[in-house]
Structure prediction request, 56 residues.
Amino acid sequence: MQSKKVALFVGVVFVLYVIITDPKTAADYVQIGFEGVSSAAQSIGDFMTWVVNGGK
Prediction:
């Protein structure tokens, strides 16, 4: 359990470091993440629509 806390702390420190030292790149990473989540949600919606329509 202690290693998870250390890993989380290191991850948070890294994210803060990237945001502080290069905010433009950090914004690009956030945009890429949101685009990925949006694309995944769209794909799930398309699949559910296909299922509801009987797989046609």
User: Anything to note?
Assistant: The two ends are 48 Å apart (CA to CA). The chain is about 90% helix and 0% strand. Helices lie at 2-21, 23-52. The first helix runs from residue 2 to 21.
